[in-house]
Design brief:
By secondary structure, the chain is of the alpha/beta class. It folds into two domains: 71 residues, no CATH class; 225 residues, Rossmann fold (3-Layer(aba) Sandwich), CATH 3.40.50.150. 38% of the residues lie in helices and 24% in strands. It has an eight-stranded mixed β-sheet with strand order 5-4-3-10-11-14-12-13. Strands 6-9-7-8 form a four-stranded mixed β-sheet. Strands 1-2 form a two-stranded antiparallel ribbon. Helix 4 crosses helix 12.
Amino acid sequence: MPTTIHGMAKMVWEHPANRGRRAQAFAAMAGWQAWKRLVGRPRYLSVYGGMSFRAYPDSTQPGRFVYFGGLPDYEEMTFMKRYLRPGDGFIDGGANEGMFTLLAAQLVGSNGAVHAFEAVPAFAKRLRDNVGVNSLRCVTVHEMAIGAEQGTVSFVVRGSGSRVRTEADSDSAVQVRIGRLDDTLPERSFAMGKLDVEGTEHLALRGADRLIARGEPAVWMLELVDKFLDRFGSTAREVRRWLDDHGYDMVLYDPDRNRLVPAPDPLSAGPDVLAVCRRRLPDVKARLAAAVRSENNG
């Protein structure tokens, strides 16, 4: 999130979820900023059509809900709403306080399964609170990091974000458990996975070799930022090549046209991309088409 009022205002004005509601968005932004400064206590926000999200003044997550019409990551969240079905499995790697976990749980329902991974104890507690207040029995919280091996690792925490500590970091760190998705997840199908793990996405993918070999999940949502990946010896292009070798193509989602389009190389359109299993692409497209037909008929 930008740190200046001008930067926040620009993002509010340009965000696609605010089309036709910019006045309400600016009013909501002013209200949240006033609450943080004058009241300073946590409060509950109503999100995703009736769920509750505990909003802490020291977190950036509530502001994203408030400023951006309830869909902070508009393209990716619109994709989730059109693609996920009741009974699906969803993997949330780097769940933080549960922004994506809650949306996925709403979409997959009580017969689905959401496995949310958050390494930092303070964030994991907030995640559990948000899961608990919404009585989401389909969600399993794993208080651990995900990578290519089992063990422990040092994490640095900065504001409402965290990542694996490197030799260049002078910040204090907490020790957390780390494990492989292949060794942690149950034997069931997964429709979608999200990885936002601050530069260790390639390691998390390598810890899911067995899962990926069977084309699971059909779709990965990835945040790939070269300056983060470089800390851990990788690049967005190398991740793309690895996924290509394992049967996945990188695409972007255009919600206005309801289309998956090839992601540019290099990834100049932004850090968030979807990796879709080639052999499952027809099913992914069919789900999106059916969802839009339902929207148009509803």
